[in-house]
Amino acid sequence: MLFGKRAQPWSGPKRVILHCGFRKTGTTTIQEWMRLNAGQLPHGFVVSARDELTQPFRQAVSRHIRKPDLKSVEREALALRAAIEGMNAETVLVSDENLFGRFMMADDGRNIFDLAAEILPLLERAFGDAPLEFVFYTREQDRWLRSAWAQDVKRAGVSQPFDQWRSAMSSISWETGLSKITAALTAPVHVFRMEDDLSASDPLMGRALFDFAGLSADQIATLERPGRENESLSAAALNFLLKVNALGLAQDDRRKVARLVEENRGCFVA
């Protein structure tokens, strides 16, 4: 095993925060905020928003989910540690919702929480004694699952109506899922509610995360805000894509149609 040797003591940033999603809990908006303001953040505060820093790791995880290869995941975990450890920063905030896969369910029946409970401890072990903390956002469960279903219709070729798709997700719940993840990790786990950020007097998706990471209210207020990101398709557009997905088109052709629908969403009403 790659982790058989004793890790060298951590010598990098004083805080490493991994915002691991979940998908469809405002993550795209949070990441766009980070990209917009990366050059305006306080000295010593570095952000990475689902970019080339984490890309090799998430690609290794994606391959591992399809065909088990833990050694590849472990190698990329160590490489990610080395990259972050070498940063000239006090605090590093990394946001990537695909660190444990892209979809709610793997082909073998494991759900998003099962995958997180397997993959994230590998990252934790690679980081050794680093000051690592994990952050997640939750969302009201039915809204979350409906949004995840719509994403799977767009991205994964799902052709099932929501109720049928939802029945296959019967094992998914915030309470049991977060408990499983927390039990698998020894590093601190922090959970924020999407609804709390959006219902505040000055709504900003990600406010709880940015505050937790050490930005003051005044600093947050002066930074640029993103527009709406990754908006849902209308019911008409989703119904059209359900029919397209049921045709059994080649994956590349299906994706081209999905992109056309997203780029021409005004053609679909209701």
CATH level-1 class of the largest domain: Alpha Beta
Q: What is the string of SSEs from the N terminus onward?
A: EHEHHEHEHHHEHHHHH
**CATH fold node name of the largest domain:** Rossmann fold
Radius of gyration: 19 Å
Please state roughly what percent of the residues sit in beta strands, choosing from under 5%, 5-15%, 15-25%, 25-35%, 35-45% or over 45%. 5-15%
Q: How many domain regions? A: 2
Q: Taking strands numbered 1, 2, ... along the chain, how are they ordered across the largest sheet?
A: 2-3-1-4-5
Structural class determined from secondary elements: alpha/beta
Q: Tell me the total number of β-strands.
A: 5
Distance between the termini: 54 Å
Biggest sheet character: 5 strands, parallel
In terms of per-residue confidence, which ranges show pLDDT below 50 for 5 or more consecutive residues?
none
Average per-residue pLDDT, rounded, comes to 94
CATH architecture of the largest domain: 3-Layer(aba) Sandwich
Helix percent band:
40-55%
Shape: globular
